[in-house]
Amino acid sequence: MEPTRLTIRAMMSPRRAAHFERLGAPSNWRYPWGVEKNVAKTSSAIHSDPEIMGGTPVFVGTRVPFQTLLDYLESGDPLVEFLEDFPTVSREQAVRALEEAKDALLARADSA
Fold first, then answer.
1. What is the mean pLDDT of residues 51-63?
2. Is the pLDDT of residue 100 over 50?
3. Residue 16 has pLDDT above 60, yes or no
4. CB under 8 Å, gap of 24 or more: what pairs does 50-58 form?
5. Measured between alpha carbons, how far is 40 from 37 in angstroms, rounded to an integer?
6. How many of the other CB atoms lie within 10 Å of CB of 26?
7. What would the pLDDT profile of 64-85 be if each residue is shown by its tens digit?
């Protein structure tokens, strides 16, 4: 039997539950049970699909927005805390996403 949304939110850290409330997760939202933590390498660690969270950029194979990682880091939290709160995101995915963001920022700065 799959836990209900309320049960899932009760099992989450208060910070993670607040994050999903802030995102306005739909009332029928369920934790993505069975999502593979170690997603095979793809061309990108993040993607955007209108069918997944309204097109918000998320880590491939999850419903975890990339912005959430940036929010954690911006507030001074270590990467390990983000990974503990969002176990569907692997360390490799998080590092790769940050490297892609850095490369995109540097490329944009070089073209300016």
1. 93
2. yes
3. yes
4. 53/23, 56/23
5. 9
6. 9
7. 999 999 999 999 999 999 999 9
Residues contacting 39, CB < 8 A, separation 6+: 59, 60, 61, 62, 90, 93
Could you tell me where in the chain the CATH 1.10.10.10 domains are found?
Answer: 49-112
Number of H helices, E strands in the chain: 5, 2
Span 49-112: which CATH code? 1.10.10.10
Beta strands in 15-108 (DSSP E): 46-47, 58-59
Rounded to the nearest angstrom, the gap between the alpha carbon of residue 69 and the centroid of all alpha carbons in its chain is 6
Give the Cα separation of 7 and 112 in Å (integer).
49
pLDDT at position 36 over 80: no
- pLDDT tier at 56 (50, 70, 90 boundaries)? very high
Query: How far is it, in rounded angstroms, from Cα 12 to Cα 74?
Result: 21
- Backbone dihedral angles phi then psi of residue 47, each to the nearest 5 degrees: -150, 165
